[in-house]
Amino acid sequence: MGKIPKICFPNDKILTTVAHSCTLTPGPTPIIREQYRVPVQITPRIGHFFGRRGRILGALRPIPRFHDAFSQNTNTNTNPEAGLKLLLSNTMSLSPKIDEIRCCILELKPDVVCFTETWLHDSINDNHIHIPEYNFILKNRMTGVHGGVGLYVKNSINFKSLAHLQVNNIEVLWAWLRPKRLPRGVPCIIIGTIYHPPNADNNEMLTYLSTTLTTIESQYPGCGILLAGDFNRLNVSRLLTQFKMKQLVRSPTRGDRILDLVLTNLPQIYDKNGVEILPPFGLSDHNVVLLHPKVRSRQEGPSRKVITKRDTRISRKLELGRYLNSINWSIFDSIENCEDKLELMTNLIFNGLNHIMPIERVKVHVNDCPWITPKFKELIRHRQNAFISGDTVRFRKFRNLINRERKILRKKFFTSKVSQLKTSQS
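and the corresponding structure tokens:
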């Protein structure tokens, strides 16, 4: 980090700045606020704000720095639950702040980023707002220059836009997500990015959200739901009760009010202390919300264990029977001592067992059911590979094989257990 520069404003106010790690392109002088450590460029459109002393001083309140957030959240040793790491921000114009936003997103690495008040329009080139390793979908306001919502999704997450759920006069953007890891019993995540303007009709928005969420639950049974955005003063208690959701943001996001909310029906996978409030982007008056999923406690001890077993296939048992039939048992007649006879019989039997059905050491997962076999796991691997490659015929073949093998394994295991219990009782 180089020498600390001092930048003077026209009214001779001085701010001490610290250069952020991202590269700045030539252009207007970068202004970096001491509390934020993030670059803000002065353009003719926003330059007049610096003459408004109250707005600037009010924005410089002591909140966590992005630099500190980077150092706290880039630990690669954590093991998160199957939830999405989400960043939410009311940007008050996305395009002028894209360099700052790009730096922060690439450092924090959220799975999804929800933006409200993007103020985008068709004349803005897609390359200008592109962020590497992320896909972007948006819904611009049809009339006026403000409003609009956008959603960045990591390249590693399968997603599709649910345009059929959107209406023109309501600023809500819907998307279907299928991350690699999901909570058990949850087939997908439906995320909605919402901007509800202060002067909009509350009843209209609540009715729309209620109707749309009902449709989502019928079309995607068991799905996880995430609603994130700037709700302003919209009372969401009706939605929380009707769809069994919980509001996760507990700290003010604009002044002393909580306007930016995250609603979900999967509160169990998020830590109540895992919601961070970070500084705004540029001159936005809304703080950034960063939502972390819970971190699983690592299992003590190894995840696998070694067991010993013999090959008990029917063919091996028949081979052992043929071996025992081939022994000349008359040799025992020439032995008078009972202990010597026992030792000879033990040696004959174990020599055959170790040759025909040798002991094998097998690694199994500590959580595997006792009837799970390596063959069963191999069938699952073949099924997964067929699904990924798009081979429908092979996928169905292995799917059916797995179902049959599962039933056979369970039946054999429980039949054996019942037989042992009957023997022990008798």
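(Above: one complete record from the training split.) The longest strand covers residues 270-278.
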